[in-house]
Every structure is written in C-alpha cells, then in structure tokens.
Write a structure and sequence with these properties.
There is one protein chain. The protein is of the alpha+beta class. It has one domain: Aminopeptidase (3-Layer(aba) Sandwich), CATH 3.40.630.30. Helices cover 30% and strands 22% of the residues. A 5-stranded mixed β-sheet has the order 3-4-5-7-6. Strand 4, helix 1 and strand 5 form a beta-alpha-beta unit. The longest helix is centred in the C-terminal third of the chain and has 21 residues. It is globular, with a radius of gyration of 24 Å.
C-alpha cells in the first residue's frame, strides 16, 4: 500500500497449500474453504490511521471476488511476524481453535458480504422513502391540510 507515492505497508496472504510451513503451527491446518492471512505490517509513521484495516478489507474484497469463503490467520499472544489476536478480533475474526500462543482465527466472508448487502439494502430502502423536502413546497401538518384541489 502506498500513501502519496510512499510505501506505507503490506499484507501477505495465500492458499494454505502454498504455505507449507503453516502446518508447523499447533492449531493447523487452515480450513479447506479459507485462504491464510500470513502477516501484515504498516510502517510506524503511518500507523494508527486505519491503513491496516483497509489492507485487510482489500484482501477480503479480492478473495470474495474469487469465490473464497473465509480468511484464516494464526494469531499471536506475543510480538512476532504473526498478527496479534486482539488486532484480528478487532477486524471481526473469531477464534476457531484456541491455543495459548497461536490460536487460529477466522473471518467468514459470506457473513461479511451478507452484512454489507443488508446494510446497503436497508440504506436503499430508507433513501427511497425519505426524500428531501423540495424548495418552495408547502408543508402539510394536522392543522394545515391540503384541499382536494391542491392534491391534484
């Protein structure tokens, strides 16, 4: 990811068969319907601005287009190249296999897409019902009713 032409961060993800060392984690293997989020990093001068979240959302969007159903990641309880459990949880990942040092977490993309579609659908219905009051139009209130001639 670049910010104003300057590298700001990266994310690495792949189907688990292309990451054979992932089998070394005690909570392996990654589910057959998931892609493995291996690591991500935002340079310190760009941290705290939501770029990490944006990177993971970009991964989710890419994988959804490819028909992938979920993203899984090995979390870390301590600092390392694996993403922190608390960070993954803040992005919506849930633990599917617990472990003291490296639990496996999952983000179900179908749920994410369904939620987004539900929100977009609700917004569309709301916008269809609520319209701005036209300039110069006469407001109707219980004490100020339109006559039948004005309705036409």
């Amino acid at each position: 990811m670049y910010v104003d032409g300057v590298p700001a961060g990266y994310v690495l993800y792949a189907p688990p068969m292309y990451v054979p060392r992932s089998l070394a984690f005690p909570t392996s293997p990654v589910s057959a319907d998931a892609v493995l989020l291996m690591t991500a990093n935002i340079l310190s001068e760009f941290s705290g601005g939501g770029l990490g979240r944006l990177l993971v959302q970009s991964v989710a969007k890419d994988l959804t287009r490819r028909g992938v159903k979920a993203i899984e990641a090995y979390g870390a309880s301590a600092e390392g190249c694996v993403l922190p459990v608390t960070y993954l949880e803040s992005l919506g990942f849930v633990t599917v296999r617990d472990h003291a040092r490296h639990p496996r977490l999952r983000l179900d993309l179908r749920t994410t897409v369904t939620w987004r579609e539900d929100v977009e659908g609700a917004w569309g219905r709301l916008v269809g019902v609520v319209r701005p009051f036209p300039a110069g139009a006469r407001q109707v209130s219980p004490t100020n009713r339109l006559t039948p001639d004005e309705v036409r």
